[in-house]
Design a protein that fits this description.
The protein is an alpha+beta fold and 494 residues long. The protein has three domains: 233 residues, no CATH class; 86 residues, Nucleotidyltransferase, domain 5 (2-Layer Sandwich), CATH 3.30.420; 129 residues, no CATH class. The chain has nine helices and 25 strands.
Length: 494
């Protein structure tokens, strides 16, 4: 059967989306999603249970010790001893997870099974004085895991020399073991109590891969890699080091300790405010206290960032664009931020309420080519109102259709919009109409075309209600919209 071109585009779009999401989907399956026995299973559980019994007797009544299955936490020494078993990985095998729960079937891609469950590891780290941070969550525009760092060493037995866990991993990109930078205590998220299934559950206890320590960013894990490392960027590049000690089914002790035991924090929360004005456009302050760290030109903020990173801090920076800041100035700052939002620079936080994520100012220009798109987003052309009043807009929606000759052509519908509420209503009504007529849904994406001198706050308020659930993607173009092909443009359905 031959598919129409438009349908082919839709299927290609769907497939490309699935391919991009596949690693994330595979890594976040449900309970029992791995066939029984696949990848092996722990064999030293009885010995770990005996270790538990000894610790319960040894530390009974000691309020400075927390004894849970598979671990002992010491509040005085700020140390967690955790029992684990090596998997059946071969030297050079691809690794995705460093430490998973003993009930997980992902031994074929993991380094160790833990005899302590993920939520108990979380509890133990809090017992010794640590606080969990924020897990990686790209849907919420959190592209960096956040938290204080934990050093993990591995000891085979009482006679062997402890080694850093990172030393067991070879990075094929560098030909070296991973740097011993520690892992961020992000903590796995909890399901809402009102969830129909697993309500209130600790996600890492419930969903595969039941990760305690991961070497790519994921929302489920207790301890995350401290770099921006989405799975698609690292998959296949990290392997079991050919020269590292590793024997299948060996019983080992992992020691987890805060990187800072002196009460200091490696993580610093900062707020960078971009103001309108030629003399003092930038204010860098400590969040949430508001104490100023730097004030003046952007270069002074950069100098402050440099001092703090050289002192060994991880800088998590919230951006604040002033309402009256012209869009072209906001775009300039966004481009400068993009250059330093890196592992060795700063870590940009999700946007403040009512503001855009800064990368909205850095769209790839090729996405403007409508002839090469699989699907079309909403497009909004903004212009100043009469006599400099409220903004006015025209909402456009393009389609790629086959004409009578079987060739593809662009057609377009457009609607006038006078407010944020009107914009949201139009998007909602068109989506409802498409759903009723079984047409392909419009992606939750909006391309905004605006004049460079427009005020940032005026634009963000106009589009604030476009996606009420906050799950839409916005790109900003400081140029007039090209409303071609004009002969096929028509008012949208009412």
């Amino acid at each position: 059967m031959r598919l129409p071109r438009a349908m082919k585009r839709s299927w290609l779009c769907l497939l490309s989306g699935l391919i991009l999401c596949l690693p994330e989907l595979l890594a976040q399956g449900g309970p029992g999603d791995t066939p029984a026995g696949y990848g092996g299973s722990p064999m030293r559980r009885a010995e770990s249970d005996a270790w538990d019994v000894q610790n319960q007797e040894r530390h009974r009544g000691n309020g400075d010790k927390l004894v849970l299955p598979g671990l002992v936490a010491d509040r005085i020494t700020q140390r967690v001893d955790l029992r684990a078993e090596t998997t059946e990985l071969e030297k050079g095998a691809i690794i995705e997870f460093l430490l998973i729960d003993q009930t997980c079937g992902r031994g074929y891609e993991s380094l160790l099974w833990s005899f302590a469950k993920p939520s108990d590891v979380h509890r133990a780290l809090e017992f010794i004085g640590m606080k969990s941070g924020e897990p990686y969550h790209p849907d919420a525009l959190r592209f960096w895991p956040k938290g204080e760092r934990v050093n993990i060493t591995l000891q085979q037995d009482n006679e062997s020399k402890p080694v850093r866990l990172e030393s067991l991993i070879l990075d094929n990109r560098t030909g070296k073991a991973l740097d011993p930078t520690g892992f961020m205590f992000t903590g796995s998220y909890r399901l809402p109590k009102e969830a129909p299934t697993y309500g209130g559950a600790y996600a890492a206890d419930t969903f595969e891969p039941k990760s305690i320590a991961s070497i790519f960013n994921m929302r489920l894990t207790v301890l995350d890699i401290p770099t921006r490392s989405p799975q698609r960027d690292v998959y296949g590049k990290l392997v079991l080091h050919p020269e590292a000690w590793f024997e299948p089914h060996a019983l080992v002790t992992l020691v987890l300790e805060p990187q800072h035991k002196d009460g200091g924090a490696r993580t610093i929360d900062l707020k960078l405010t971009f103001q309108k004005g030629p003399t003092e456009p930038v204010v860098l302050s400590e969040a949430p206290s508001g104490n100023e760290v730097s004030k003046g030109e952007f270069t002074q903020a950069l100098a402050a960032f440099g001092r703090l990173t050289e002192a060994g801090h991880d800088l998590f920076v919230q951006l604040d664009f002033a309402d009256d800041l012209p869009l072209h100035r906001a775009q300039t700052y966004a481009h400068l931020i993009k250059a330093i939002d890196k592992d060795a620079g700063i870590r940009v936080e999700p946007p403040m309420k009512g503001q855009l994520f800064y990368e909205a100012f850095s769209p790839r220009e090729e996405i403007l080519d409508r002839d090469k798109r699989f699907v079309h987003p909403w497009e909004l052309n903004l212009k100043p109102g009469k006599d400099g009043g409220e903004l006015e807009g025209t909402l456009w929606l393009y389609r790629t259709e086959d004409n009578d000759a079987g060739d593809e052509q662009l057609t377009a519908s457009h609607w006038p919009v006078q407010s944020s509420q009107a914009l949201a209503k139009l998007i909602r009504s068109e989506n409802t109409r498409r759903q009723a007529s079984e047409e392909i849904a419009v992606p939750a994406a909006l391309f905004v075309y605006a004049e460079p001198a427009m005020a940032y706050g005026n634009v963000t308020r106009f589009i604030a209600d476009a996606f009420p659930k906050g799950n839409g993607t916005v790109y900003l173009f400081l140029q007039p919209i090209e409303t071609t092909p004009a002969p096929n443009a028509k008012p949208g359905p009412k």
